[in-house]
Design brief:
heterodimer; A: alpha+beta; 6 helices; disordered N terminus; disordered C terminus; B: mainly alpha; about 75% helix
């Protein structure tokens, strides 16, 4: 007798038994830690903070380049175009988004830098994130603390002495209703505009109808230098398809350099390691003409989809998937 | 560390030993990913640490924290209704394995509110009243979500080869 032949009560009991088996089998391999971890922080929050650090360093490179009348890092006019290849046979492009520099996700609301000889030596940032307690990331010299009265805005310090960081935290003010936070500019620091921190960004989402996979390929001019992640909690740098790839500890996200000013990241969905490696190896930067040519081959029905969440002026183009 | 802090620490440790695994299972059923479930449960325990003395029912507090944390996790993915069904955590062979696999797939296709209701009802064994309290909805809404979720699972299974 199958589950479908039972009445409601019996069916519910079978669902109950199935849920227990799913949980038991899904969690069977892991050991239970004996104690809760103290001062724990999400790897994703650390990633965001470290990417910001790298972005701010890049911004300073751009500023210095302007002074020398040559361009090293474009502050946001050149589009970032990448083509994912190969796309697994049972997946297709579901969505393509272009985000303008000022609305790139992950930029801080406020950032200040202290510089010596034209180089950043310390940073202070106010940024959205999720944190549960103050903490320090070994290796990255990163400090994070929640702000008083504005729970999802964090204060990040890089290479700041503990007393200086605490003093800065005391100056943070917040308008919770508007999520507007600010702080006094620390002595010796000067403010950097978020628009200086990133160029454009493309996101390509692959959707596999038969696998329910959701794979996001993100290309951005925001650098993700593996050195910033080395030693940080929850991250490792691996060699994958001849690239230095920053891997989160659960191997659900991968970040690597596609071209000198283009960085990619993949949220893997249910891709296998081989498929991830193939995408990392095959994704390439292309010209505008090549991009348009590739876009024309994508079997999608393009439509305007309005701004993405939290942005205000982002240009978004979305595509509906074709049933596979 | 003061004596009250030691007592609090002991209580937290005991709570952790008693409730970590059930909460991890609950979170796993809500998000479909062990790694994400661990994050959600760790958030819940960290949230309750330091305030155990003020919480009348720590297990219920944790359960609500896990449900809320699972919602936040889905929001972060911006895939509110896509459970991570593809994670490599195969159901073992044996009696009930095929049904569990089928239910796992059907659970993945449920809207998030119905998935929550089904998991809380048939895994956590909560009453409709308790479900309503945990997810913050009227009692009748909780009952409706369970009913609709169960119906959808049944239809999903009927449609599968």
């Amino acid at each position: 007798m199958t589950m479908l032949e039972h009445d409601d009560d019996v069916f519910a009991e079978r669902v109950r038994a199935a849920l227990r088996q799913i949980a038991v089998d899904g969690l069977a391999a892991g050991a239970v830690p004996l104690r809760p971890r103290r001062h724990w922080i999400r790897p994703a929050t650390i990633a965001a903070a470290l990417v910001l650090v790298a972005a701010l360093v890049a911004a300073v490179v751009a500023l210095r380049a302007d002074e020398e009348e040559r361009t090293v890092v474009d502050g946001g006019t050149a589009p970032v175009r990448v083509i994912p290849a190969p796309i697994p046979e049972d997946m297709q492009v579901d969505r393509v988004q272009e985000v303008e520099p000022s609305t790139v996700e992950g930029l801080p609301r406020k950032a200040w830098a202290r510089m010596e000889d034209g180089r950043i030596v310390a940073l202070l940032m106010l940024h959205y994130g999720e944190s549960l307690d103050g903490f320090q990331v070994p290796g990255a010299r990163l400090s994070v603390t929640p702000t008083t009265g504005c729970g999802d805005v964090l204060l990040f310090g890089v290479n700041m002495a503990e007393d200086a960081f605490r003093a800065a935290a005391d100056t943070v003010t917040c308008e919770p209703a508007d999520h507007v936070a600010t702080a006094s500019e620390p002595d010796g620091f000067h403010e950097l505009a978020p628009e200086q921190l990133a160029a454009g960004q493309w996101t390509i989402t692959l959707l596999g109808g038969s696998r329910r996979a959701v794979v996001e390929l993100r290309a951005s001019a925001v650098p993700v230098d593996p050195a910033f992640f080395a030693g940080a909690q929850g991250f490792a740098v691996e060699q994958l398809a001849d690239h230095d790839v920053v891997v989160s500890d659960d191997r659900t996200s991968f970040r690597w350099q596609i071209a000198p000013d283009i960085w990619g990241s993949i949220t893997r969905g249910d891709l296998t390691d081989d498929e991830v490696a193939a995408l990392i190896d095959g994704t390439r930067a292309v010209s505008e003409a090549e991009w348009q040519e590739w876009l024309a081959t994508v079997p999608v029905d393009l439509r305007s989809d309005g701004p993405i969440e939290g942005s205000g002026t982002a240009t978004t183009v979305a595509a509906t998937s074709v049933p596979g | 560390m003061s004596s009250s802090e030691v007592a609090e620490d002991d209580r937290l440790g005991q709570l952790y030993r008693d409730e970590y695994q059930p909460m991890l299972a609950l979170a796993y059923l809500l998000v479909g990913s062990r790694a994400a479930a661990e994050d959600v449960v760790q958030d819940a325990f960290t949230g309750i640490s330091g305030r155990l003395a003020d919480v009348a029912n720590p297990a219920a507090y944790l359960r609500t924290s896990v449900v809320n944390g699972s919602r936040r996790w889905h929001r972060r993915l911006r895939r509110e209704d896509r459970w991570v069904a593809g994670e490599a955590s195969p159901v073992a062979s044996g009696d009930g394995a095929a049904e569990a696999l089928a239910v796992r797939g059907a659970l993945a296709d449920l809207p998030a509110d119905q998935r929550e209701a089904i998991v809380l009802r048939y895994f956590a064994d909560l009453s409709f009243r308790e479900i309503a309290d945990v997810v913050g909805c009227p009692l009748q809404t909780a009952a409706t979500r369970v009913r609709r979720g169960l119906d959808r699972i049944r239809r999903e299974l009927e449609d599968r080869p």
